[in-house]
Specification:
This protein has 13 helices and seven strands. The protein has helices spanning 10-27, 29-39, 45-48, 52-55, 57-64, 66-72, 74-99, 106-136, 149-162, 177-184, 186-203, 227-242, 271-287; strands at 166-174, 210-212, 217-224, 246-247, 253-254, 258-264, 293-295. The strands form two sheets. It has a five-stranded mixed beta sheet with strand order 2-3-1-6-7. Strands 4-5 form a two-stranded antiparallel sheet. Helix 2 (29-39) runs parallel beside helix 7 (74-99), helix 7 (74-99) runs antiparallel to helix 8 (106-136) and helix 10 packs across helix 11. The chain starts with 9 loop residues before the first helix and ends with a strand. The structure holds guanosine-5'-triphosphate. Residues 1-2, 4-5, 140, 173-179, 181, 186, 189-190, 193, 215-216, 286, 290 line the site of guanosine-5'-triphosphate (GTP).
Length: 297
């Protein structure tokens, strides 16, 4: 088994760059305000507009990327919208007064400083979330990776118990995957991995999470009443893969099989020991000729 390749997702990179740019641009505001107050010059018509929070570069991008913000943290997205608008309103009030030859109000200045700080803090929070989510997800298959499985595992184990079911760890490893790369090239290997992940995901229920555990190794948390049902579920995955070939970049089709180890999870058992038992069963399956599901001892 080898480490997962995770190229930097260009979409994430753009998202983070724009967040950084927004922080920088909005830190600049203090300097611009001071300039406006001291020199009594207009900061620009766009800034004085009642719609300034929608017209500024961040505002325009924020509207188009709002769904992304919401998916990461809906409360933070709402707070950013609110702080950003309030900050622009405070800037406008201060500049309006100064341009009329009056002093800006201390209240507006306090609001500006408070909302600017809150806005920048929220952007930093969203950046941390975006990076953490990207680290958890495999850029190739889109599946979550092994980091953080422990928490999901504990929740699934407790939920299965509550419903009178048992949790099973199913470790799957694509057979002869190195030969796929060697014979058809690395991009073809990547296409097989993507197809494999999608084909499995299609067969699984929402309550059965699927992870990319390593290079060509995947982990599923199954929930069934007994061993026979768990084995049937695993065999169903094997049959689905057998009738669903992957399309390679050159248009050719390729069917791959997998070997799997299936281990029941004890009521108090940790993920690591269940994975170790499933892995041992998987190893026996490879030794016995591959393309099979083996129940852990
Ligand atoms: N294309 C591609 N290959 C990968 C990726 N991650 C791991 N691999 C390859 O997966 C292969 C795994 O090979 P092995 O561990 O020898 O296993 P195998 O050939 O599948 O043999 P068995 O498991 O014994 O059936 C290695 O050649 C890795 O380079 C990936 O993200 N993309």
């Amino acid at each position: 088994m080898t480490a997962t390749h995770t190229p930097i997702d260009p979409e994430l990179s753009d998202f983070v760059d724009r967040l950084d740019a927004a922080v920088e641009a909005h830190m600049e505001w203090s300097r611009r305000l001071l300039r406006c107050a001291v020199l009594r010059v207009s900061p620009g018509d766009d800034v004085l507009s009642a719609e300034a929070h929608r017209l500024c570069r961040f505002g325009r991008w924020f509207q188009s990327a709002y769904a992304q913000f919401e998916a990461l943290d809906a409360d933070a997205a709402a707070a950013i919208a609110h702080e950003h608008e309030a900050m622009h309103a405070a800037v406008r009030a201060i500049c309006d007064a100064v341009l009329k030859g009056q002093p800006g109000s201390a209240e507006a200045l306090d609001t500006f400083e408070r909302t600017q700080r809150a806005f920048i803090d929220q952007l930093a929070h969203v950046k941390t979330l975006a990076l953490a989510t990207a680290v958890r997800h495999d850029a190739l298959t889109g599946l979550p990776m092994r980091y953080g499985i422990e928490r999901d595992f504990a929740l699934c184990r407790a939920d299965a118990l509550r419903h009178g079911e048992r949790l099973w760890v199913l470790m799957l490893d694509i057979d002869h995957f190195k030969a796929v790369n060697d014979r058809y090239g690395h991009p073809a290997g990547d296409a097989v991995l993507v197809h494999f992940a999608q084909a499995l995901r299609k067969q699984l229920r929402k309550s059965e999470p699927l992870y990319r555990f390593g290079g060509e190794e995947f982990l599923v948390l199954l929930r069934t009443a007994d061993a026979a049902q768990a084995l049937r579920a695993a065999e169903r995955l094997r049959a689905a893969l057998a009738r669903s070939p992957a399309t390679l970049p050159d248009g050719r089709s390729l069917t791959v099989s997998f070997t799997a180890g299936l281990a029941p999870v004890g009521a108090e058992e940790e993920l690591s020991t269940a994975v170790a038992r499933a892995d041992a069963a998987l190893y026996r399956g490879k030794q016995a000729g591959r393309d099979r599901v083996v129940l852990a001892e």
